[in-house]
């Protein structure tokens, strides 16, 4: 299965090799179990502005810049186009509510996985569509030995958020100008998977939310794991396979 998947990936993108040197992690739903909090806040905040948003919608639009999500919903439900500044005002209310929520815990298995990645000599980059500054700041205190401030991509770094490839292309740049075949994306959201695939990067999905696996596979995820511990447990085998495949490619 591994051989076939990687060969298909290389063939699709016409890459001569697959030699990952960095892992690009999404944040919400991957590093932190924060999506339940986000779902509640999205619903409560948007209701104040006459916008309907369900919990499933929060997961479905996860990964987009918040202002883009709001502009899309307003256009769909109210038939009008709003400026980024107006959308930002609405997003600020969502951010305020999020700040009142309980602290989201770190996902089980994340530290162990980061340790394995670092021991393998690979870089760790965080690529998030979030503009929640308190949560972004937590990265520095929660993962000081793994996450470098210069290797974090947020909503403030790009004009087009996920599902556009821009955030992950920025991640490659911050990793030292890597090529797409030199990285792996770890995502939990359909739009995030779509962004990783659009950037030409080998994309692994972790289904930490309520959507079916097919919602991730349909966007191009090469593999789908049930949760972060499952990916962590499989990592040693996966990395050995990546190394063997790379050495056999030359």
Strand segment tally: 6
CATH topology of the largest domain: Rossmann fold
Helix content: 40-55%
What is the terminal-to-terminal distance? 21 Å
Under CATH at level 1, the class of the largest domain stands as Alpha Beta
CATH architecture designation of the largest domain = 3-Layer(aba) Sandwich
Report the structural category: alpha/beta
CATH superfamily of the largest domain: HAD superfamily/HAD-like
Instruction: Provide the number of structural domains.
Output: 2
Categorize the overall geometry: globular
Give Rg in angstroms: 18 Å
Keywords: Hydrolase
Protein name: HAD hydrolase, family IA, variant 3
InterPro entries: HAD-like_sf, HAD-like_SPP, HAD-SF_hydro_IA, HAD_2, HAD_sf, PGP-like_dom2
Pfam families: HAD_2
Question: How would you portray this structure in words?
Answer:
With 250 residues, this protein is α/β, with parallel strands linked by helices. It folds into two domains: 1-33 and 107-244, Rossmann fold (3-Layer(aba) Sandwich), CATH 3.40.50; 34-100, Putative phosphatase, domain 2 (DNA polymerase, domain 1). 50% of the residues lie in helices and 10% in strands. The chain contains eleven helices and six strands. The chain has helices at 2-13, 35-48, 55-60, 66-78, 84-99, 110-119, 133-142, 166-174, 190-198, 213-217, 228-249; strands at 22-25, 123-127, 152-153, 183-187, 202-206, 223-225. The protein has a six-stranded parallel beta sheet. Strand 4, helix 9 (190-198) and strand 5 (202-206) form a beta-alpha-beta unit. Helix 2 crosses helix 5 (84-99) and helix 6 runs parallel beside helix 11 (228-249). The protein is globular, with a radius of gyration of 18 Å. The mean pLDDT is 91.
């Amino acid at each position: 299965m591994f051989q076939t998947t990687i060969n298909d990936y290389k063939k699709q993108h016409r890459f001569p090799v697959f030699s990952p040197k960095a892992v690009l992690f999404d944040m919400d739903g991957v590093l932190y179990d924060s999506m339940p909090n986000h779902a509640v806040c999205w619903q409560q905040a948007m209701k104040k502005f006459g916008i309907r948003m369900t919990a499933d919608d929060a997961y479905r639009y996860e990964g987009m810049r918040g202002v883009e999500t709001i502009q899309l919903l307003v256009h769909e439900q109210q038939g009008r186009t709003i400026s980024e500044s107006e959308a930002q005002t609405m997003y600020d209310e969502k951010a305020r509510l999020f700040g009142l929520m309980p602290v989201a815990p770190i996902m089980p298995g994340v530290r162990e996985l980061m340790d394995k990645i670092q021991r393998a000599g690979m870089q760790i980059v965080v690529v998030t569509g979030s503009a929640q500054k308190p949560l972004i700041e937590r990265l520095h205190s929660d993962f000081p030995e793994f996450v470098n401030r210069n290797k974090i991509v947020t909503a403030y770094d790009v004009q087009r958020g996920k599902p556009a490839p821009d955030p992950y292309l920025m991640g490659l740049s911050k990793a030292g100008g890597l090529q797409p075949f030199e990285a792996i994306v770890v995502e939990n959201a359909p739009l995030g998977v779509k962004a990783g695939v659009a950037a030409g990067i080998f994309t692994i999905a972790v289904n930490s939310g309520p959507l079916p696996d097919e919602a991730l596979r349909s966007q191009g995820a090469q593999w789908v794991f049930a949760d972060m511990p499952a990916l962590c447990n499989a990592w040693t085998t996966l990395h050995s396979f990546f190394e063997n495949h790379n050495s056999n490619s030359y």
